Amino acid sequence: MSIAEEARTPTPGLLKVLDGTVDLHCHSGPSPFPRRFDHVEASYDGARINMRAILCKSHHHNTVMDLLAMRTPLADAPTPMYGGVALNSEVGGVNPSAVAVAITMGGRCVWGPTVSAAQHRRAHSHDDGFPSATGDLHEKEVSIFDETGDISADTHLVTRLVAEAGILLTGGHLDGESMKAFFRTARDNGVRRMLLHHPDFIVNASETDIEEMLTYGAFVEHELSMYHPKVPAPAWPIERLVDWIEKIGPERTVINSDLGQQGNPLPVDAYLLIVQQLLDHGVPEADIRQMICRNTAYLLGLEETN
Fold first, then answer.
1. Which helix (H) or strand (E) holds 248?
2. Distances (CA, A) of 58 to 47, 62, 199, 201, 265
3. Sequence-ordered list of residues with C-beta below 8 angstroms from that of 41, at least 6 positions apart, any chain
4. Residues 131, 261: contact at Cβ < 8 Å?
5. 3-class DSSP assignment, residue 196
6. What is the pLDDT of residue 129?
7. Which of 37, 44, 82, 278 is a plausible cystine mate for 283, CB 3.0–4.6 Å?
8. Is 263 left (phi over 0), alpha (psi -120 to 50) or beta?
9. pLDDT of amino acid 5
10. How far apart are CA 254 and CA 219, in angstroms?
């Protein structure tokens, strides 16, 4: 694969804005879903814009194990790579043991249930373009609640482990009500770094939901993949992202790629295209760097403040 095969020619000004970007949502492989590149190739892709770090996400397994297995080729790779674990049925759902293993191995993120969340399963109950795994993974629905409807003991323990480690917790693809309960519990148990993924895609959180989650300390993420014309869906206009930035404010907004899937653009090519569009639509350079460099570095634990 030629890393630069889709690259546009960036201006010096654009490269200055992108310098030090931290991508918290990279879908490099291995994965049971088709991936365009692996974690080592992702590191080299990031170097084209001097990325500071990349967090690689899998819906199905602890990605820290991948990075440790690839430590020899990654030793000379230019962009530091980080991993974590998603609380889906493949790792036992909301499983404190799986979280403890990921943290012990150096994990920087625990993702709430994604492909196992009831909200995700409802949203993708039909063939709507979400990538298919090879074969049946026998996924089961995962909830953060116990049989009485209260936050489960395992959920409490997971959030305490995340708090003790000082790492990132995301709401995954939980619905708005569940995610509010998840973040409220996390806040009460000492979690400082929280992230709400794509509130207008799958999650479909209301403005009231988002406002409440902001009070718990959550940041709101938007994905380059959803605004790139070469990604089949949802292919939203850039004005929608500009509106979100104005609504939430750059201080609590993060922009990540959510790319790496086979057939989609490389993450860096998406940064080059979409960030230039934001500049063209009047979003100040300082605000863009707040969203792609400072906020993301804080959430990954590279900085103590954003």
1. helix 238-248
2. 21, 7, 19, 18, 18
3. 1, 3, 28
4. yes
5. strand
6. 39
7. 278
8. left
9. 46
10. 7
pLDDT per position as a tens digit, 173-223 = 999 999 999 999 999 999 999 999 999 988 889 999 999 999 999 999 999
Residues in the chain predicted with pLDDT less than 70, given as ranges, are 1-8, 124-135
Both tokens assigned to 104 = 């012990």
Which residue type occupies 23?
D
Q: Could you tell me the two tokens for 165? A: 């480690």
- As a whole number of angstroms, the distance between CA 189 and CA 184 comes to 9
CB burial string 208-234: b at 16+ within 10 A, e below: ebbebbbebebbbbbbbbbbbeebeee
**Domains, the chain, ordered by start:** 12-127+140-299 (3.20.20.140)
CB contact set of 106 (below 8 Å; sequence gap of 6+): 64, 67, 68, 82, 83
Summarize the chain as % helix, strand, coil (round to 5): 40, 15, 45
pLDDT given at position 125: 53
pLDDT of residue 124: 66
In the β-sheet with 253-256, what is the strand arrangement from edge to edge?
Answer: 84-86, 109-111, 168-170, 193-196, 218-223, 253-256
CA-to-CA distance for 23 and 36, rounded, in angstroms? 16
Long-range pairs, 243-252, Cβ under 8 A, ≥24:
244/200, 244/220, 245/278, 245/283, 245/287, 245/291, 248/210, 248/214, 248/220, 250/287, 250/288, 250/290, 250/291, 250/295, 251/290, 251/295, 251/306, 252/214, 252/218, 252/219, 252/220, 252/295
89 residue type, one letter: S
Torsion angle of the four alpha carbons 39, 43, 44, 46, in this order, in degrees rounded to the nearest 10: 130
Radius of gyration from C-alpha coordinates of the chain: 18
Q: Which amino acid is at 9?
A: T
What is the reported pLDDT for 171? 98
> How many other C-beta atoms are found inside a 10 Å radius of the C-beta of residue 181?
17
